[in-house]
Amino acid sequence: MASQFTCDSDTNEGNHHFVLPPPNMTSQVVGVCKYCGFTRTHNISLFDPMATGRQALTVKRQKEKVKKQSDSYQIRTLRKTRGIVGRK
Question: What's the pLDDT tens digit per position in 8-66?
Fold first, then answer.
């Protein structure tokens, strides 16, 4: 009898090969071993394609904020606005 750890089939050396249905916006799907028919619930995480973009934008904004707070940036900006020419 198949268990969570071993498959009854000799085809795959005792390892299960679960076939999962297409994602249906739930966090759990029931997979079926294609060799022995053993079923198991799989927890899946739903991929958020916007997450990486939001993270990148947050990091970019934090870097810009730090840059704007630096003294050298403020001095350069002041020189540009007042037309002061000098050492950089």
Answer: 877 778 888 899 888 777 788 899 998 888 999 988 876 666 667 777 888 888 888 88
**What's 14's DSSP letter?**
T
Q: What DSSP letter does each residue of 36-78 carry, written as one string?
A: T--EEEEE-----HHHHHHHHHHHHHHHHHHHHHSHHHHHHHH
DSSP class of residue 79 equals H
Ramachandran angles phi, psi of 81, nearest 5°: -70, -30
The candidate with the shortest Cα–Cα distance to 27, out of 39, 42, 41, 44, is: 44
pTM of the model: 0.45
Report the chain's terminal Cα–Cα distance, integer Å. 78
CB 40 within 8 A of CB 18: yes
Q: Give, in degrees to the nearest 5, the angle at Cα 24 between 20 and 29.
A: 40
